[in-house]
Amino acid sequence: MTDLLDPPDTRGSRGTPSERRLRSLAVGAAIAGLLGATVVLLGCMAVALVAWYASDAGDHGTTRDALRVGTDGWLLAQGGHLHLAAGGPATITAVPLGLTMLSVYVAHRFGTRAAAGSAVEDERGLLVGIVVMSLVYGLVALGAAVLASTAGARPSLGWSSAGAFTVALVGGGTGMLRGAGKVVDWRSRVAEPLRTIGLGAVATVLLLVAASSVLLAVGLLRDLDTAANVLSRLHADVSGGLLYTLLTAAVTPNAVLLTGSYLLGPGFAVGAGTLVSPGAVVLGPVPAFPLLAALPSSGTQPSWLAALVVAPVLASVVGVVLMLRRHPVLTYTSGALRGVGAGVLAGLLLTALVALAGGAVGPGRMAEVGAPLLDTVVSATAAMGVGGLFAGIAATWWARRH
Question: Among 159, 189, 219, where does a domain finish?
Answer without folding.
Answer: 189
